[in-house]
Write a structure and sequence with these properties.
The chain is α/β, with parallel strands linked by helices and about 260 residues long. Strands 1-2-4-3-5-6-7-8 form an 8-stranded mixed sheet, sandwiched between helices. It is built from 8 helices and 8 strands. The protein has one domain: Rossmann fold (3-Layer(aba) Sandwich), CATH 3.40.50. α1 packs across α8 and α2 packs across α3. The longest helix has 17 residues.
Amino acid sequence: MMIIPADVRTTPTTLGNRPAVLVEPGQVAKPGTILYFHGGSYVVGSPETAMSLTANLVSRTSIRSVSLDYRLAPEHPFPAALDDALAAYRELLENGAGAASIVFAGDSAGGGIAVSACLMARAAGLPMPAAVVTFSPGLDKTHSGASIDSKAGIDPFFTRESFVPTDAMYLAGQNPEQELLSPARFADLSGFPPLLLQAGTNEVLLDDSTQMAERAQAAGVDVILDVTADVPHVFQAFAGILDEADQALDRAALFITQHLR
């Protein structure tokens, strides 16, 4: 059950040679763009499945979002999704958007894309976006954090074993010990934009965020680790149902508007 705010408009579009959904506020839009990446373990999902998140960010900030329908594994394994994300960002810049007017955001696998697309943009000599917002991001394909096992009985969605088939499809034999697959462990975060990491205590991926926060802090990055008690993976999708979801999205919206001033 997802509740989509009534005060947004959605329009099919394309970006970076991929389908996408433009989500606009009902009132006059404020300047800026939220480039959104949906979750789904890199093998399922679409802009529609993440619409409660995207639309709630748009509704709360009055800033438009473009939600990207990136290619999925197993037909398109790593790094296809990241290539699509970078192409989308590049097209926004080429169309005249300033990097300082763009925020990357994503949930779960999409949170991983938001982080890794930043690393790819830097490697490509592109300017960094204004900020990065992640909801329960997957940031460590080595699954080395303690929470992968300690939260196994509490997380209603995932266990270490549940990642085996989807990881195999996405990695397609690639070593996960590299920064684009496990940025929480291997990324050079120097010069990284301000980063918001939201997660719940009841998820096996919690330490993807805690390890990333430590790494960002050590690199001198502006980082907020925002952990909510007793909620599961991507709890923010339950906006309008869970108070904790609404409050977390309020904080994410504040973070976005602060960095897009």
